[in-house]
Amino acid sequence: MQVITVESAVFGARSSVLVSDDGSCVVIDAGAGVTDSIVGLVTDRGLRAAAVLVTHGHVDHTWDAGRLSDALDVPVIMHAADVYRLADPFGTLGVLGSVGLPPHDPSGPLAQAIAASGIDPAAYAAPRRVEPFGGVGEPRSADTVLDLGGIRVVARHAPGHTEGSTLYLVDSVAFTGDVLFAGSIGRTDLPGGDDATMQRTLREVVATLPPETVVVPGHGPTSDIATELARNPYLARL
């Protein structure tokens, strides 16, 4: 499997294109402005796209999900607990979104960051094809196995940053979204975040991954579980 990164200009959110030996591909996260690059990659290499996976419902990871889903003619797949965020991407982000403003108001800090990248923050369109997995309100769901073309993905519920945050495990690689970064973890102070839940996720989900697992986060450099267990202060104190 090959992993190709396309980085959004908004908060440096990472979109990962997973390419199998048989030419199948899936996309993990779709940040603002990545559609043209990803569609060009798929077209130029003659790949067969199977899905757009979403690690969590924050709009810096979902802005282009609808556009990319339409362009590739594939569904958006994500945990059921975060699906509600797609309908109001700014209003569900608290201080980063439109807290204190009318619903859907695109004038908050994240909308301003999107505008600064040259994208109209009023141009957001929610995905039309969404296939949720897992259950809403569950503290943690069982693994969901997704067979997507030639790529087998294990979706592992990892709440704490958001209710529906998910790790996607493919071979010896973990796509961690905003749950785990190199040297840090995702914030828990936004709506749907919870520090106690995050601590449980770190202890029971992240720290139990094999040490050789490569960590591909939603922002920043890659790492591996062994390095994070040794050096990440949020894991070392567990």
Task: List descriptors.
238 residues, alpha/beta, Metallo-beta-lactamase, Chain A, six-stranded mixed beta sheet, 23% helix, globular, MBL_Glyoxalase_II, metal-binding, RibonucZ/Hydroxyglut_hydro
What does the model show?
The protein has 238 residues and is α/β, with parallel strands linked by helices. Helix content is 23%, strand content 26%. It is built from seven helices and 14 strands. The strands form three sheets. It has a six-stranded mixed beta sheet with strand order 1-2-3-4-5-6, with helices on one face. The protein has a six-stranded mixed beta sheet with strand order 7-8-9-10-13-14. Strand 11 and strand 12 form a beta hairpin. Helix 1 runs parallel beside helix 3.
Q: How far apart are the termini? A: 32 Å
Strand content: 25-35%
- Count up the helices: 7
Helix amount = 10-25%
- Kindly report the spatial arrangement of strands forming the biggest sheet: 1-2-3-4-5-6
What name does the CATH topology carry?
Answer: Metallo-beta-lactamase, Chain A
Q: Which value, in Å, is the CA radius of gyration?
A: 17 Å
Query: Looking at this structure, what is the CATH superfamily?
Result: Ribonuclease Z/Hydroxyacylglutathione hydrolase-like
Largest sheet report: 6 strands, mixed
Number of domains: 1
Identify the overall geometry. globular
Q: CATH top level? A: Alpha Beta
Residue runs with pLDDT of under 50 for 5 or more positions? none
Organism: Cellulomonas humilata
Domain Metallo-beta-lactamase: 13-219
Protein name: MBL fold metallo-hydrolase
GO molecular function, one term: hydrolase activity
